[in-house]
Every structure is written in C-alpha cells, then in structure tokens.
Design goal:
This protein has 11 helices and 6 strands. Helix 4 runs parallel beside helix 5, helix 8 packs across helix 10 and helix 8 crosses helix 11. It is an alpha/beta fold.
Length: 223
C-alpha cells in the first residue's frame, strides 16, 4: 500500500461506517464534523437539527445516527428513535444529563446506545463502532442505574429465571442453557415460561426467543 495516506490505509483494512448526527447545538455539530474528518473508519454523511430535517436531507440512510436526546423542537425522544430505527438505522442517543428513565425508554424503542456528553470523543467513536455492529453501548454508571430499575414494567425474576433467560437469549439452545445453569431442559423451559408470563403481566408481551432476547437487551441483562 505504498503511497497511501494513513486514512486510506485504514480504510483498506476495514470498511467505513457512515454516520449522521442530529443535534441543535451548532458548536457541537461543528466539533463532531471536524473530529469525524480525522477518524479513518467513520464517514459523516449528514448533520441536522431535527429528525424531520435529517429524513429530508440525508442522501442515504447512515449506518449509525447519533441523536441528541432532547431537541429544541420538543419532539419525543422515543418517537425520534422509532422513526430512525424504522429506516434501518442504528441509533446512538447522546445526552447532557443521564436521565435514567429516558435511557430505558429509548433502548426499548430500538436505540442500541445511550451515552452522556461528558465522555471524550474516543469513547463516542467506540460507541459508534459498537452500535454499527449491533452491540449495545452505554456508560457503566447508566448500566448500573438500569440494572437497579424498579419500575412496574420491569418484572422481578428469580436468580434461576434470570440465569436461564440470559443463557437462552444469548443464543444458546434450551438444552445448552439448561446445562449452563445446572438444571434439566424441562426445568429450564418452565423457567422461561415463567419469564414470559412475568413480562406479559408487566405489559410487555413476550412469546418467542427473539422476544426474550429483546427483553433481555432492553433490561440490560445481555449486551
């Protein structure tokens, strides 16, 4: 690769991740634009102040949309995430203040990341890369807060129910999950039936393995 710049060399090594940013802070947008220009594997395709503006001006759906939680147009964060996720975009929500309730809500709406703005740009870049590859990305303090969320729609699972759910939702077969927890497959199935029932009672219908995986991710039980 003689004669290639560092950016071109890295681009040959791994594909670029396209990024759009929605924020009404002009200074922040300018800063992110300048920073992304120096990130070899990240390519900025669009900036906007609202979701409507992005959808009207984005040349093609970006791999990742970095979305400010609270915008000046007073749009609902959950609605914003749903609209973007419906267009096959992975969403990373950023916020100046760690609203725990909002964090849980936007994850359930389809966001894969939730990060406070007090982190450095290297942390933001790592989060963008995680989200682009379908991994959940958020700060440790928010993960702790979510794991202690006691809202009524977060069911109380026994240690055994939680262990089977995590193993099964992580991709294991029922038999493998049962073996991991140290129970018989029939017992593991009963635990999963209880988990489904508890989520249903909490107003979050859960029927399939995919549903279980989504609930486990929403409640930060798996990454």
């Amino acid at each position: 690769m003689t004669g290639l710049s560092q950016r071109e060399t890295v681009a040959h090594m791994r594909p670029e991740i396209s990024v759009s940013v929605i924020d009404d802070d002009r200074m922040l947008l300018d800063g992110i634009t300048a920073w992304l220009a120096a990130a070899p594997d990240l390519r900025l395709v669009c900036t906007a102040g609202t979701v409507d503006e992005l959808l009207a001006s984005e040349p093609a759906p970006a791999d990742v949309v970095v979305l400010d939680l609270l915008l000046a147009d007073r749009s609902e964060p959950v609605d914003n995430v749903r609209r973007l996720a419906a267009g096959n975009r992975q969403v990373l929500v950023v916020t100046a203040v760690p609203y725990v309730t909002h964090g849980v809500d936007v994850l359930r709406a389809g966001a894969l990341g939730y990060l406070t703005k007090d982190h450095d740009l290297a942390t933001l870049a790592a989060a963008v890369r995680d989200v682009a590859h379908g991994r959940v990305a958020h700060s440790p303090e928010l993960a702790y807060a979510w794991s202690h969320d006691s809202r009524p729609d977060r069911p109380r699972l026994s240690p055994q129910e939680r262990a089977v759910l995590v193993a099964y939702a992580s991709g294991m077969t029922l038999t493998a999950a049962a073996r991991r927890v140290g129970v018989q497959p029939a017992t593991a199935r009963r635990y999963l039936d209880r988990v489904k029932a508890k989520y249903g009672e909490a107003g979050r219908p859960t029927y399939t393995k995919l549903d279980l995986a989504n609930r486990a991710r929403e409640d930060d039980l798996i990454r």
